[in-house]
Amino acid sequence: MIHPALKMYNYHVWANGVIIKRLKELPQDIYHKEIQSGFSSVSKVMSHIYLTDFAWFDIISGKSMNEAMGYTDQIRKELETKNIEEMEKKFLDLSDRNKAILDSQKDIEKLIVVDNPYAGLLETSISESVLHVVTHGSYHRGNIATMLRQMGHTSVMQDFGLYLYSK
């Protein structure tokens, strides 16, 4: 039986793919269009999801949060300029990387200590960190759905229930 956190990560990968597929169907200018919202463009939200996934899996791998955030800060601007096709490739590569990290873990319930420069020390498990990545992605895919509606386009269903039906 697959661990529930791993099942949720598989859902997260699927849901990212669903929203990327929808974004590829829309006019190309939608992806970088500046709007008044929590994020100023869909490209910035997608980059944020990607960078957060990258950083948390670096942390799961044993890097400090400062190290992980330092790297993501270096690549943020570059990611925000990529088109959706380029980001699709980045997300696919990232999910492969992250699944390899998860596969290498002997104990997904192992405790790790995260030293967040904004919130302090947190003792959490690898599985809780994975669930954080998943809920974080879900929240921001919701932002994208709202932004698309603001620009006159529909989003796409990507909830966990639909994922279960798709299997």
Draw up the topology in text.
Elements: H1 4-25, H2 42-60, H3 65-81, H4 84-103, E1 111-116, E2 120-125, H5 126-150, H6 160-166
Antiparallel strand pairs: 1-2
Helix pairs in contact: 1-4, 1-5, 2-3, 2-4, 2-5
Any overview of this molecule?
The chain is mainly α. The protein is built from 6 helices and 2 strands. The chain has helices spanning 4-25, 42-60, 65-81, 84-103, 126-150, 160-166; strands spanning 111-116, 120-125. A two-stranded antiparallel sheet has the order 1-2. Helix 1 (4-25) runs parallel beside helix 5 (126-150), helix 2 packs antiparallel against helix 3 and helix 2 (42-60) runs antiparallel to helix 5. The radius of gyration is 16 Å and the shape is globular. It starts with a helix and ends with a helix. The relative contact order is 0.20.
How helical, in percent, are the residues?
A: 55-70%
Separation, N- and C-terminal Cα atoms = 15 Å
Write down the secondary-structure element order: HHHHEEHH
The fraction of residues assigned to DSSP E strands is 5-15%
Concise description?
The chain is mainly alpha-helical. The chain has helices at 4-25, 42-60, 65-81, 84-103, 126-150, 160-166; strands spanning 111-116, 120-125. Helices cover 66% and strands 7% of the residues.
Which features would summarize this protein structure in a list?
two-stranded antiparallel sheet; mainly alpha; 167 residues; 6 helices; 2 strands
